Amino acid sequence: MDERAARHRRDVEFDGILRTAARTGHDPDDEPTGSRLDDVWQRWAADPRIRRAAEWGAPAAVLAVAAVTRLAGLDHPHQIVFDETYYVKDAYTLSHLGYEARWPEGANESFAAGDPDVHHTDAAFVVHPPLGKWIIAAGMAAFGTDSAFGWRVGMAVVGILLVALTMLVAKRLFASTTLAVVAGGLLAIDGNAIVMSRVSLLDTGVAFFALLGAYFVLLDRGRVADRIASWAAERRAAGRPLPHGPVLWARPWLVAASLAFGCAAAVKWNGFTFLAAFGIYTVVADAFLRRRAGIPGWGVAAALRQGPVNFVLLVPLAFVVYVASWWSWFATDGGYYRRWIETGGGTAWGGALAWVPYDVQNWWHYQSAILNFHAGLTTPHDYQANPLTWLFLVRPTSMHYENLGDGRAEAILDIANPLLWWGATAALVFVCVRTALRLRHGRTVTAEAFILTGMAAGYLPWLAYLHRTVFQFYTIVFEPFMVLALTAAIAAVAGSRDDPEPRRRAGLWTVGVYLLLVVLVSVFFWPLWSAQPTPLWFQQLHYWFRSWI
Question: Are the CB atoms for 289 and 461 separated by under 8 Å?
């Protein structure tokens, strides 16, 4: 009886731990990563009223910084820069014709001069889905095209929202408002995130929707932990065995993640890699939650019973969202390949599925043509950057440069804050090592697994295309996960409550000095992120390596 009572007490305590994890989103075996930094903050804001105000005020201040760095002087330069030549003009014709049309020579100058209606009406071959261009078009619809602010504000707002979302994810991941503010603040002042929010390219849209989907997966994990714990507790209380565990269909956060990942793919195809990676993450997370609940055959149950359910909840809806993003292509007649079969192009499947509506076959043929383009894109470019060099910031992208005469120039150089970026790269090594050590000792790796999943989704697929023409700015899609890794490393350096006082003091000084240097470097690089006119000698100070020029 005593042994049975002790076992029952352990079961009750374990169920309570799992439910606490579900409520907070922080794994009970994880170290209180924000505890030391939170202690410092709480001592400074000893008054509970000040502390409550700071809970909202500090994130609001970060968002204010993000808004200023992304919106201030957004209308300068008043000209189409870099790949805006594709996306801004495509967004304009997409919103006016329902499809992307061709433009004549000199259209960039005409567009910037306030005369955008010089486009042709025949379709252009575009290689990215429509959603990101609709975001750009929304900005032009609200603010017009007579100012560059109108064609850039859509992505600028998305960039601000990306900072807010990063704070939400960090708060959920680390259970610390302090670390959430650190993570959001780092992204708010980083050059790659700033530049990619100040120009109308598509990649910031992928970053936002991919992180949103990942956040929903994180919320789903907490809810599933609670449900599995409750299921196990009820069966133990009834003296019933624990077979393979429940099959959970009612997972609204997983459905929300599907919608978000579908939107990411509807901006650019690499959004699908986040769907795949976090789909696998959900199955692995389900397996470990079952193991912790003492469910036998937890791995097989998660893979063969819950895994197919997760697939059904995630994949079909994401694909539907992707197809729906092409609604204007289906609704009009002028889109590229819109009448491919009718004009003698053939059939998309060689006649094997002739019963499929022509509209669908035409669309499928278009998707195949896009795939072939992406797979074979090897056109040399002065600023292409091999993916193997991305984490080391070897070849940033110059998006705009103009010599103003009189020894002055202005530039938009898409380069991350070097101290932040290299620190984040080192932090990824730290996270990998920490993951291995914690797994070796049977500890959970909730935060680490989440961060590494996001990095794998955003970065690893590009290693299969080392021959392809790609650019450093593609890294924006996984930069929030790099910032989260850096935040975890900062918390580790700051130390925990159990560390000796000299160790804690040294850790806090190290963190403080590092963050101050990051801020100063961002201030130093700001003119080159925002096209501020500066002396040529000042610009040269920013080219630390020849490959940066």
Answer: no
Rounded to whole angstroms, the Cα distance separating 22 from 18 reads 6
Place of tokens 């019933």: 240
> Chain-centre distance of CA 156, in angstroms?
15
- Mean pLDDT score of the chain, rounded to an integer? 89
For residues 267 and 270, what is the distance between their CA atoms, to the nearest angstrom?
A: 9
Cα 317 to Cα 33, 105, 260, 267, 401: the distances in Å are 36, 41, 10, 16, 43
Please state, in angstroms and as integers, the Cα–Cα distance from residue 544 to each residue in 401, 491, 522, 548, following that order. 18, 29, 15, 7
- Structure confidence by residue, pLDDT tens digits, 181-232: 999 999 999 999 999 999 999 999 999 999 999 999 999 998 888 888 888 8
Angle of helix 418-440 relative to helix 446-459, nearest 10 degrees, comes to 130
What does the alpha-carbon distance between residue 28 and residue 488 come to, in Å, rounded to a whole number? 16
Residue 102's SS3 state is: coil
Contact 435, 443 (CB under 8 A): no
Residues 155/205, Cβ–Cβ less than 8 Å: yes
Phi and psi based region of residue 243 (left: phi greater than 0; alpha: psi -120 to 50; beta: remaining): beta
**Is residue 370 within 8 Å of residue 361, measured between CB atoms?**
no
Cβ density class 154-163: b for 16+ within 10 Å, e for less: bbbbbbbbbb
**Residues of the chain scoring pLDDT < 50:** 1, 3-26, 28-33
Cα separations (Å) of 217 from 54, 106, 290, 313, 322? Answer: 28, 46, 17, 12, 19
- How far is it, in rounded angstroms, from Cα 424 to Cα 417? 10
What are phi and psi for residue 342, nearest 5 degrees? -65, -25
Q: Is 128 helix (H, G, I), strand (E, B) or coil?
A: coil
Which amino acid, residue 430? Answer: F
3-state secondary structure of 409: strand
